[in-house]
Amino acid sequence: MPSPTPNRSSSTIPARFPARVHFVGICGRAMGAVAMELARLGIRITGSDQHVFPPMGGLLEHAGISYHTEFSAAHLTPTPDHVVIGSYFSPANIEVATVLERRLPWSTLAGFVERYFLQTTQNLVVAGTNGKTTTTAMLTWILKAARMNPSYLVAGESPNLGKMFHSSQRRSGPFVLEGDEYLSGLGDLNPKFLHYRPHRVLVTNLHWDHVEVFPAERSYRAGFEALVDLLPPSGGLVLNADDPGALALADRHQLAGTETVGFCRHAQHRITGWRQGRELQTFRFMGETFSLPAFGKIYAINAALAVTLARQEGVPLHQAAQALTSWQPVKGRQEILVNSSHLTVLKEEAYHPHALAGAVEAARARFPRRRLVLLLQPRYTGGAEGPHQTALPGALSGVDLALVTDPLEIAPVSRAFSSRALCSAIRRSGIEAHHVAKVADLIKKFQSLHQQGDVVMVSLAYRNEAIFDRIQEITFSKGNTSPPQQSPSLLQ
């Protein structure tokens, strides 16, 4: 366990904050990000969690924040001034039960952020089923490059930003928030983004997800409709016109500040002249030429959406274009972990069919003449009756070989998702696919099928990070004499 967060003079803590905050579930990405920012402001931070997955464990340690790797009522002594309870925790957790029994001040993370950060700021909420982390990072970087000093909350590691949560302490400045539609947590069944007091909203796309808490597509969509309903008459709404689910929100709230973006002809602002180069993609948008160090059209859509919302905030198009030339993709999105002539390994956190389709398209654009292999652990599918069972075969149509394990679910399902059925459907489209029951056996199967020059895209749950080290060993098993180069950057 790292050394405790250093004590700082209480005079350095902004008056509106509690002096000591305890986090139940501190290693969640957003939870840990907020904890680290509070520590920077001089607030005493403690926390507990049982599941410590990269990157948060290391980030907390680097920030000097002490946290426990088990739960105990003793962690609430001395008594904290406030307790933040993660969205997955209930009174079955001993710390949550103790908070309720002792009537300690507490809130969900979304409630905490709303109360202590969002009362007077100009809140820009980036929502959507997929692409919201990338688009939030893009928008924040554009505003930073324009010297607008934004606050931000991004649930991913952006190389440009350096951290996931930052409060500029400007009480009226822009605050960019990645809008998570998942339930807020204990006693609050509303999506997290409904706490974010939006002045402007951007929606990347809308596809049924989180089936374990939204049993019908209509219930999932209702949260986004409620978010748009919260916009004031002077607010703004930016929508992806290429996505029917997102575009339909335009009818929800008749705002003068509604703008639609896309490649399609009915978009108010069209992306034209798109070209994919070896290192950059270029496109025309609102009369400006944009160059973006990324691969696949999905990045062009995300960039155009971010540029449009930044323009509503007063950033000229040429400044936004200049900022995006130095933007770097969020880690875990098409991130190169191994790069050699024998094997290239991409880490891809996407799991939703729509997101995986975009990831496959991006990998194809990046490596057009190489065999593309996908190692996939389906997750959070909602079972056989969820959207993943029928949508995944089409989403994976661009790969050459798919190795699929049994799924990981958050909650029990009435009828299990079938990875065997998924592989059968993939094979019917002429693509080689194999079911491998356990993640631990993926490497053995891949090793038997590996060909020199393979590009391997790996989409697994966080708990399986160690598998990337094992993939690298394959290069040596094939008689190669030099190790693969580590390539954390997009352009390396």
General description of the model:
With 492 residues, this protein is an alpha/beta fold. The protein is 29% helix and 21% strand. It is built from 14 helices and 22 strands. The strands form 4 sheets. The protein has a 10-stranded mixed sheet with strand order 7-6-8-5-11-12-13-14-15-16, sandwiched between helices. Strands 17-18-22-19-20-21 form a 6-stranded mixed sheet, with helices on both faces. Strands 2-1-3-4 form a 4-stranded parallel sheet, with helices on both faces. The longest helix has 16 residues, at 297-312. The protein is globular, with a radius of gyration of 23 Å. The two termini are 34 Å apart. 49% of the residues are buried.
> Could you estimate the helical fraction of the residues in percent?
25-40%
- Stretches where pLDDT is under 50 for at least 5 consecutive residues are 1-11, 479-492
Report the portion of residues in β strands.
15-25%
**Number of helical segments with 4 or more residues:** 14
Task: List the main descriptive attributes of the protein structure presented here.
492 residues; alpha/beta; ten-stranded mixed beta sheet; six-stranded mixed beta sheet; 14 helices; 22 strands; disordered N terminus; disordered C terminus
Write the layout of secondary structure elements.
Elements: E1 20-24, H1 29-40, E2 44-48, H2 56-62, E3 82-85, H3 94-102, E4 106-108, H4 109-117, E5 122-127, H5 132-145, E6 151-153, E7 165-166, E8 174-178, E9 183-185, E10 188-191, E11 200-203, H6 217-229, E12 236-240, H7 244-247, E13 257-262, E14 269-276, E15 281-285, E16 288-292, H8 297-312, H9 317-324, E17 335-339, E18 343-347, H10 353-366, E19 372-376, H11 388-395, E20 401-404, H12 419-428, E21 432-435, H13 442-449, E22 454-459, H14 467-477
Parallel strand pairs: 1-2, 1-3, 3-4, 5-8, 5-11, 6-8, 11-12, 12-13, 13-14, 18-22, 19-20, 19-22, 20-21
Antiparallel strand pairs: 6-7, 9-10, 14-15, 15-16, 17-18
Helix pairs in contact: 5-8, 5-9, 8-9, 10-11, 11-12
